[in-house]
Amino acid sequence: MGNDNWEGDRDLDEYSGEDWKNRILDGKYDNRYEGVGNFGRGRKNSSKPSKGRKKFIVIPIVILVIISFMFLKADINSDNNTLDEISSSVDVSTISDTIDQAKKSLDTSELENSANNFASDFSNSFDSNYITVSYDRIPSFADADIVRNAIVHANQKWTSANSDMTIKLVDSKGDIHIEWKKTMYGQHAGQITGGLMEVELGSLDCNARWNHYSMNMISDTIAHEIGHYLGLEHHTNPNHLMYGEDEFTQRNFDDLGYNIPSHYSEYTSWIGYDQLESKYDQLNQEYGIMFQEYEKLEREYSKYPATIYDEYQYRQATQLYNKLDNLGSELNVMSSQIDRLVNEMNCYVN
Ligand SMILES: [Zn+2]
Fold first, then answer.
1. CA atoms within 13 A on the CB side of 69
2. CB 198, CB 181: distance < 8 Å
């Protein structure tokens, strides 16, 4: 099959119209959308609307170019050939000739350009290089200046690390929309599902008193969640913006081609504090259970008379006494562990 059979660009133009755009959209292209609706801690799914998306588009284009050539050949040979007939008449070597031809006449950058054009035509819901951000009215319990600065800083972190990225604050609903939470009571300060980001503006200390987060802390939370929006998972290093310990932590972190900005030191302290807090909660819970057991044994022990004459009863009482003694020592150790934690957390229970 020679050059003159398909006359290069002119024929390709014929197939770059709405028709095959729609076919791409009906087919593989849908893959890109599956992941977008489902990010964020605990709700991620494996499909990533990331820089890797080009491959979903380029492959169908090559396939369609081949199909186009088949149709073209059909036109030349006979007007009424069906696709089946074409398939049987086109042998493998002809197809690979066709692919070679396509490769020669269409250089890769051109292919990628058209892929990018389609991406921008159809990806109203996701574009990793142009992201709009909107946010709910800042609640009255929060410091509006701190919160506004935090958003701006988070966006700047990403755009200054990635020169091709634009993040724009918009009034109407953006690709990412932020909802503010007073606290999320959990071990994370934010989460994102699709474009809906939830960010807590403070947390409760061990006296259940609410404390406003710093600008840096809120900013890092937003920047971390933007990372999830871009398709990033969790990193094992607490000094990494995408740090997180859960089932989405990647031992071999994939940066998906992004330059990932660093975070402020407050974030690391928060992680440290967060770990102390969960240790505190755990110890407190264990202490509570053990203390109940202690009280139960104590009640049993108190049933024995002050002076016991029966030898069997005396042995039972002594056993119980030893148990209580051991449990008491364990409780003391725990209690001083809790005290140390409270000191570290700088939070004294009333
Ligand atoms: Zn996360």
1. 26
2. yes
From ligand 1's centre to the CA of 228, what distance in Å?
A: 7
C-alpha separations of 26 from 29, 51, 127, 215 in Å: 7, 21, 19, 44
Q: Is 349 helix (H, G, I), strand (E, B) or coil?
A: coil
Write the CA distances from 299 to 108, 293, 324, 326, integer angstroms. Answer: 82, 10, 11, 16
CA of 134 to the centre of ligand 1 (A): 20
Task: Please tell me the distance between residue 250's alpha carbon and the centre of ligand 1 in angstroms.
Answer: 12
Q: Ligand 1 mean position to 36 CA, how many Å? A: 16
User: Under CATH, which number does the domain 130-263 receive?
Assistant: 3.40.390.10
User: Rounded to the nearest whole angstrom, what is the distance from the C-alpha of residue 174 to the centroid of ligand 1?
Assistant: 20
pLDDT over 60 (residue 123): no
pLDDT digits (tens, 9 = 90+) for 66-104: 555 555 554 444 444 554 554 555 555 555 665 566 555
User: Rounded to whole angstroms, how far apart are CA atoms 8 and 121?
Assistant: 25
User: d(Cα 69, Cα 5) in Å, to the nearest integer?
Assistant: 9
> Helix, strand or coil for residue 200?
strand
pLDDT value for 212: 95
Determine contact, residues 219/201, Cβ cutoff 8 Å: no
Q: Which CA distances in Å does 261 have to 131, 154, 162, 219, 255?
A: 17, 9, 9, 12, 11
Domain chopping of the chain, boundaries: 3-122, 130-263, 271-345
Residue 62 has pLDDT above 80, yes or no: no
CA of 241 to the centre of ligand 1 (A): 9
